[in-house]
Design brief:
By secondary structure, the protein is of the alpha/beta class. It folds into two domains: 155 residues, Rossmann fold; 143 residues, 3-Layer(aba) Sandwich (Rossmann fold), CATH 3.40.50. Helix content is 36%, strand content 19%. It has twelve helices and 14 strands. The chain has a seven-stranded mixed β-sheet with strand order 1-3-2-4-5-6-12, sandwiched between helices. Strand 2, helix 1 and strand 3 form a beta-alpha-beta unit. Helix 1 packs across helix 10, helix 2 packs parallel to helix 3 and helix 6 runs parallel beside helix 8. The longest helix has 16 residues. It starts with 27 loop residues before the first strand and ends in a 5-residue tail after the last strand. 56% of the residues are buried. The N terminus is likely disordered.
Length: 337
């Protein structure tokens, strides 16, 4: 495996987190005595969102706000349930945390709604389209006491990569959850740009994770490859998607490093740890009183990095040019379980 690290230029966010136990799986509390209390609400449990959370905590630490010293973290995971995300946010508000860090759009919307009648700032991350989600104005500032970072996908770079790797391909399939604002917005961008690269986008919407198996089985027979978004429901069922694509002998292209680790052939994606870290640094400034969430425009991860998995390519007898391996920030030669 080769490693080269590029930092995506990112801005953002502010989040102090509060604990709410007993709502969803994966709840924990760390007590630090005097200092700040931050509630972290994460919508689902998968690699990219986990990386955001770890990066966020690292960003706070870089600014001198350290868990176990002057920081208490209260963390809960909604396990991809919208109702649970609302309960977690309401719990943080009732406990009067200093800041709420919300990871993914639905958690961000829930935190914003719950904290709207309080003075608790909300800092989000992994929200692809803050404006469409009602979290930001057109100028980038929050619609209230909220700011954060956007993980809008580098769609143009992704399409360029797919065209380079599959010069004869015509149709790209995308699975998405119909209730995810991020996914709808991203698919619109794919459709807007696809023609420039000679592609047609074939999209299939699902409502729940139970729909993925049948939807993926149908979609792989209509397209030359699949392109996976950061859609939380679909990501949780990514192994099902990859299995159906492998049976059909077509590649799945991911949208970030964790998806490539577990079996997507390649991705032009962003570094979610660095996104979270940038968000943590912004949150620290809000906690210290050096900035306010309401006046801080959200930031966007703009740099795209190439990740490649040669083992995933070999499973479908896809030959990758040596150039891709040489240019990749990281190349994986195995598929993580």
């Amino acid at each position: 495996m080769t490693k080269k690290r590029l930092l995506a230029a990112i801005l953002t966010l502010v989040l102090v987190m509060t604990a709410f136990t007993g709502c969803g799986g994966g709840s924990s509390t760390t007590t630090s005595g005097d200092g700040y209390t931050v509630g972290i609400s994460q919508f689902a449990e998968h690699g990219s969102l986990d990386n955001c959370r770890e990066g966020f905590i690292a960003g706070l630490a870089e600014e001198g706000i350290v868990e176990g010293e002057n920081l208490t973290i209260q963390y809960d995971n909604a396990q991809a349930d919208t109702g649970t995300a609302s309960i977690i946010a309401e719990g943080f508000v009732s406990k009067k945390v200093d800041l709420i860090c919300s990871i993914a759009t639905i958690s961000a919307q829930s935190a914003f709604n719950a904290a709207s009648s309080s003075n608790i700032p909300v800092v989000y991350t992994a929200v692809s389209d803050p404006v469409a989600a009602g979290l930001a104005k057109e100028d980038g500032t929050g619609t209230g006491n909220i700011t954060g970072s956007s993980d809008i996908l580098p769609v143009k770079a992704q399409l360029e990569m797919i065209r380079s790797m599959m010069p004869e391909a015509k149709k790209i399939g995308i699975l998405y959850t119909t209730s995810e604002t991020n996914s709808i917005s991203t698919i619109a961008t794919y459709k807007e740009l696809a023609g420039q690269y000679g592609f047609e986008i074939v999209d299939t919407g699902i409502n729940t994770i139970a729909d993925v198996d049948m939807a993926a089985a149908d979609l792989v027979n209509k397209v030359d490859c699949l392109c996976n978004l950061t859609d939380n429901t679909v990501v949780q069922a990514l192994q099902t998607v990859i299995a159906k694509a492998t049976e059909a002998g077509i590649p799945v292209f991911g949208s970030e490093i964790e998806q490539v680790k577990v079996g997507c052939v390649a991705s032009m994606g962003i570094d979610y740890f660095e996104l979270g870290k940038a968000t943590g640094i912004m949150a620290a400034k809000i906690l210290k009183g050096e900035a306010t969430a309401a006046d801080t425009p959200f930031i966007t991860a703009e740099a795209a990095e190439l990740y490649v998995n040669t083992a995933a390519a070999e499973k479908i007898n896809m030959t990758l040019d040596a150039t891709y391996i040489a240019d990749a920030v990281e190349t994986f030669t195995t598929i993580e379980a």
